[in-house]
Design a protein that fits this description.
The complex is a heterodimer of chains A (748) and B (177). With 748 residues, chain A is of the alpha/beta class. In chain A, 28% of the residues lie in helices and 15% in strands. Chain A has 23 helices and 27 strands. In chain A, the strands form 7 sheets. In chain A, strands 5-4-15-14-13-6-7 form a 7-stranded mixed sheet, with helices on both faces. In chain A, helix 15 crosses helix 17. Chain B is built from 6 helices and 10 strands. In chain B, the strands form 4 sheets. Chain B has a 4-stranded mixed sheet. In chain B, strands 2-3 form a two-stranded antiparallel sheet. Chain B has a two-stranded antiparallel sheet with strand order 4-5. Classes of the chains: A alpha/beta (748), B alpha+beta (177).
């Protein structure tokens, strides 16, 4: 990269941590040892465990459970909390394997400070005092020289909240997270434009009573959104019909009544054709549509051009199948879910695709109906009494104002504002990164590196030496969720529910919780009045007592569910209801989009297609991994140690590629993958696409279990199609070709 | 008493939670496992089927691993559970060779290890760890001698198969189709 000032430092250069024994593959067939050393198994029977409540931080679903600690003070296992609506007592593989996050020997162990110049840069171990003093002095100088607003916070997860508090007290609301512009943003904006409220997390999908669920590229079961997977399984017992639209034969496609192997990038065409059938065959919920929606006549006119016969030519799906599936949905209505999906930043017209899905739900009358979408409710926890924040001169809203309907800060705009050539009104001079591995989450690493190189200062907080940590000036080791307090989890559900996370063991090594870091930095900035507690437990206890519980009670039960106070779960027959949209109705025709100069109803736009010998890059999730953060987890690494490149057998034959062969990938602008990837030759993928699981190809050597294994899909994404409505980064318009290992030098 | 497992392949998503839960419950060393997940794909695009299966020791009625054990370490206890007494195991590996399901492995501590149906949990009235954690609830554990048990009922009403029936070992893990 040729960095001058901020050279990427491989944390491994420090030799932190003891040598790990490389985990062998599964023991089946391993040669056996002849050492006779019987092991006492009494711990299994007579175990004297203590258990402490927590909620999981391995993904964003935040399932509540119990951390079991044995007599030696070691965490042995994690079990779901039976009363938790996020997991119903059953954690997913990542949650069960969360113990590996605690035990991982490659964890960040002590604060690190960048030292040296030019090619001689390295990290040195530092005390917390040194690290905090340096961070505080930089935060002061950035504020004096450019304004606190120019110090941006990029975050994900629970600890982000603590630093958000610190930053707002400091005077910056320049905040963003990949969870919006690189993930679920378009669906939040698309559904909000239609129904007036965004989908949120967990999604208010009433899967347990659903009769027909439509998944558009959403691979439930491979994405382990726990309670949804459980409810889907229960619904399978009750005979749910699932319609899966995916160019890949996903796991859930194999459980579906209809799998629609669509040509990638043409989903909107299918959605419009479904609307055409449902309106023209008068299959829509007439009473519901008349009472609650706005713009049916415009929509009817609009979709006339989108016949199933037209859609066949676009999607490669037969008209008969399109009609049959539309009727299947209508038959189940209103107990039908066109699932909004989660990672939906695909082609840059994603808000419009999500609008189409929302409109289809509206036509079928599923919003606010049993087996469709319920009205969610959450408990609002009272705010701990603290002084008001000062108003920044500008915030994430101003920085992202090019995209009028962005509802959260845009990471990509924060990066643009950090570039040397940026001459707008919202320059960014420093980053504080918490719990997000930006280079694996956001495409165009070269741009991120240019932005980072132009920063005055950068802090990274994480539990692991992720790829992003190597760019920091200061690295702060956070303890894992099993070793700390965090905010009370209060999420939207059928019934309001809260959960406690508390430390089961003291922090390992010299790691610390984020609330403590935020307080220490705050005090050095003279903001002590914002941190008037010695232990975050005091804040939690105060909040819990305000709602009639206490820390003592929550330590015993972990989860507390409350009766609903608001409206009922579903609309009553003929109920008068005003939707929080400009018209007070569900907007089939969006007045807001029209005013802003966007299409008020979704249209189909053709997207670029691969050249000869190139294949569309599709990526997704595996149930045993979360993003790039679990790849090194010792309890999960053996379940999927690396990703593979799925190639259709016809394509493999043409290229003379063998199953298991290692190849390099090259994308449409000639970018070659840093590492090779093993090929999985499988019928499960279309011939015009390849597939890989996201989150591998780690470049940080300190991640000993996962360094160099597989390819990072993000690395292969150069073409980003920005959604003009909300600023999301569409990442499915990239095409790759194969380079045989023996031809690598000739190709680059 | 005859313990058995029925596993619904229509619901399993192959997440491998059963594997992780077994490892943490039974302190199986990292890099080894007592249960595992297989995927088989049939057909050609787009006419396809997938079968996902969580597999483990079949606790066979006629268990070749028990028959071939030279020390008696491999034995059968109440409920038909096949166990290894690690104090008696000399690690010769004959049982590993004899198992048609590849369900046994050499523990790094020098003895042969395998699924115990989580007997320590079952004896306390709990389900095996894999069954209790499964997010799709695709696994059912119970007593085949009790006609009212869930496993008995499922095997009465659903189509099912066992693996490698040709080995003639009378396996007790059944896959609902």
């Amino acid at each position: 990269m040729g960095t001058t000032r901020r050279q990427f430092i491989k944390i491994s250069a420090l030799g932190l941590g003891g040598a790990t024994v490389a985990a062998s593959s599964y023991g089946l067939g391993d040669s056996f040892l002849s050492v006779f050393d019987p092991v006492d198994k009494s711990h299994l029977v007579n175990a004297n465990f203590k258990r402490y409540p927590t909620y999981c931080e391995v993904c964003f679903w935040k399932c509540a459970g119990w951390t079991y600690v044995d007599e030696d003070g070691e965490i042995t296992k994690l079990i779901g909390n039976d009363n938790d609506p996020h997991c119903y007592g059953r954690l997913c593989p990542r949650g069960t394997g969360g113990v590996g996050m605690y035990q991982d020997e490659d964890r960040l162990k002590t604060p690190l400070i960048r030292t040296g110049e030019g090619d001689q840069q390295t990290f040195r171990e530092a005390t917390w005092e040194e690290a905090f003093d340096l961070i505080a002095s930089k935060m002061k100088s950035v504020k004096e020289n450019y304004g606190a607003e120019t110090f941006a916070l990029l975050k994900h997860g629970s600890s982000g909240k603590q630093f958000e508090h610190l930053f707002q007290a400091y005077g910056s609301d320049t905040v963003g997270e990949p969870a919006y512009a690189q993930c679920r943003g378009p669906r939040e904006t698309g559904f909000a434009l239609t129904f007036g409220s965004w989908v949120g997390s967990p999604e208010p999908t009433d899967i347990r009573d659903c009769k027909c669920m439509v998944l558009i590229g959403s691979h439930l079961g491979e994405n382990m959104h726990n309670s949804q997977v459980q409810e889907m399984s229960d619904a399978i017992d009750k005979g749910i019909s699932i319609i899966t639209v995916d160019p890949r034969f996903s796991t859930v496609a194999s459980k579906s009544k209809y799998w629609m192997p669509i040509k990638p990038s043409t989903d909107i065409a299918l959605l419009l054709a479904w609307m055409n059938v449902i309106i023209n065959e008068e299959l829509y919920d007439k009473k519901y549509v008349e009472k609650y929606t706005y713009g049916l006549d415009e929509l009817r006119k609009h979709v006339q051009q989108y016949t199933p016969e037209w859609a066949y030519g676009v999607t490669t799906l037969k008209p008969d199948l399109i009609r049959k599936t539309a009727r299947e949905m209508a038959q189940a209505a209103p107990s039908v879910i066109i699932h909004p999906g989660r990672h939906v930043t695909w082609y840059g017209d994603d808000t419009q695709r999500e609008r189409a899905m929302a409109i289809l739900n509206a036509l079928l009358g599923s919003w606010g109906r049993r087996g469709g979408f319920y009205f969610k409710e959450k408990l609002k926890l009272p705010k701990y009494p603290l002084p008001k924040y000062e108003h920044p001169k500008w915030t994430w809203k101003d920085l992202g104002s090019k995209y009028p309907l962005a509802q959260m800060g845009l990471t990509n705009e924060i990066i643009n504002s950090s570039l040397p050539e940026y001459d707008g009104d919202y320059p960014v001079k420093a980053w504080f990164v918490s719990g997000t591995n930006l280079v694996a989450a956001i495409p165009n690493k070269a741009e991120i590196e240019r932005a980072i190189d132009n920063l005055e200062f950068m802090v990274v907080v994480d539990t692991m030496p992720m790829d992003i940590t190597g760019y920091a000036d200061v690295v702060l080791p956070e303890c894992t969720y099993l070793e700390r307090y965090d905010d009370i989890r209060s999420a939207t559900n059928r019934e309001p529910s809260i959960a406690l996370r508390m430390p089961a063991v003291p922090p390992k090594y010299n790691s610390k919780p984020s609330w403590w870091m935020a307080k220490q930095i705050g005090e050095r900035l003279g903001l002590q009045e914002y941190f008037p507690y010695e232990d975050y437990a005091e804040v939690l206890d105060w909040q819990l007592k305000e709602i009639g519980s206490s820390l003592e009670e929550m330590k015993k039960i972990g989860v507390k569910n409350f009766p609903r106070k608001g409206r009922s779960l579903y609309l009553a027959e003929d109920e008068d209801y005003t939707f929080p949209t400009p018209s007070g109705k569900i907007e089939l025709f969006s007045t807001r989009l029209e005013q802003l100069g966007f299409d008020p109803m979704p249209k189909y736009t053709a997207h670029p297609e691969p050249d000869q010998n190139f294949y569309r890059l599709i990526y997704g999730r595996a149930p045993m991994h979360t993003f790039s953060r679990t790849a090194n987890n010792p309890n999960l690494v053996d379940l999927m140690p690396e990703n593979t490149c799925w190639i259709n057998p016809k394509v493999a034959k043409q290229w003379e590629i063998e199953p298991g062969e290692e190849i390099f990938l090259k994308n449409q602008i000639g970018k070659v993958s840093q590492f090779p990837i093993k090929v999985r030759v499988t019928e499960r993928i279309r011939w015009d696409s390849i597939y890989m699981v996201h989150g591998f190809g780690h470049q940080e050597k300190a991640l000993k279990n996962t360094f160099g294994k597989g390819v990072s899909d993000t690395e292969m994404i150069s073409e980003v199609m920005i959604d003009p409505i909300m600023g999301g980064t569409g990442m499915r318009g990239n095409f790759v070709t194969f380079i045989k290992k023996e031809n690598l030098t000739a190709e680059i | 008493m005859r313990y058995a497992m029925a596993i619904d392949t229509k619901k399993c998503v192959g997440c491998s939670d059963c594997v992780v839960a077994c490892q943490t419950e039974n302190k199986v060393p990292i890099g080894y496992c007592r249960d595992w997940v297989t995927e088989s794909v049939h057909g050609t695009y787009p006419q396809l089927e997938i079968e996902l299966r969580t597999e483990r020791c079949n606790h066979c009625d006629d268990a070749p691993c028990v028959r071939c054990c030279p020390t008696g370490a491999s034995h059968i206890v109440e409920g038909g559970i096949v166990l290894v007494e690690e104090f008696e195991c000399i690690g010769c590996g004959a049982c590993i060779e004899s198992c048609p399901y590849d369900a046994r492995f050499s523990h790094p501590e020098g003895y042969v290890d395998k699924c115990t149906f989580c007997m320590h949990r079952v004896n306390r009235g709990q389900q095996p760890a894999c069954v209790s954690v499964c997010p799709t609830k695709c696994m059912y554990f119970g007593d085949l001698d009790d006609p009212r048990s869930e496993v008995s009922q499922l095997l009465k009403t659903r189509k099912y198969k066992a693996l490698a029936p040709e080995a003639g070992t009378k396996p007790q893990i059944f896959y609902l189709m």
